[in-house]
């Protein structure tokens, strides 16, 4: 069971772990790219990560889902990871952090 007091801390830890998931094509993590739209963790330890990709039809769907699952495995409260890819709203470069834009040379 996940206690409500620690839910915010767990979400922070999840985000930190997702910052280790680097898009193989762009070389920047999925959090700073703005690909992670929502993270939900229920009381049973099921973590749903709603995310998108920079382009629909990107061949990295399975690879990134696997990388997300592996990144969250070390968190004891996360018992199962469910990665859901969504296409609405569409991803744009405005979702990227300043760090990501600097890394990719976008001004």
UniProtKB/TrEMBL annotation:
Q: Which Gene3D superfamilies match?
A: Fe-S cluster assembly (FSCA)
Q: Boundaries of each MIP18 family-like domain copy?
A: 11-83
Q: Which GO terms describe its molecular function?
A: methyltransferase activity
Question: Tell me, which GO biological process terms does this entry list?
Answer: methylation
Record-linked Pfam families? FeS_assembly_P
**PANTHER family referenced in this protein's UniProt entry, alphabetically:** FE-S PROTEIN MATURATION AUXILIARY FACTOR YITW
Q: What is this protein called?
A: N-6 adenine-specific DNA methylase YitW
Q: Which residues cross the membrane?
A: none
Keywords, ordered alphabetically: Methyltransferase, Transferase
Q: Does the keyword Ion transport apply?
A: no
């Amino acid at each position: 069971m996940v206690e409500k007091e620690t839910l915010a801390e767990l979400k922070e830890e999840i985000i930190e772990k997702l910052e280790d998931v680097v898009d193989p094509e762009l070389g920047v993590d999925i959090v700073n790219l703005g690909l992670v739209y929502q993270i939900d963790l229920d009381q049973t330890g099921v973590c749903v990560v709603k995310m998108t990709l920079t382009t629909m039809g990107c061949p990295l769907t399975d690879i990134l889902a696997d990388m997300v699952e592996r990144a969250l495995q070390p968190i004891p409260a996360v018992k199962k990871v469910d990665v859901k890819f969504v296409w609405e709203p569409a991803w744009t470069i405005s979702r990227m952090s300043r760090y990501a834009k600097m890394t990719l040379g976008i001004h």
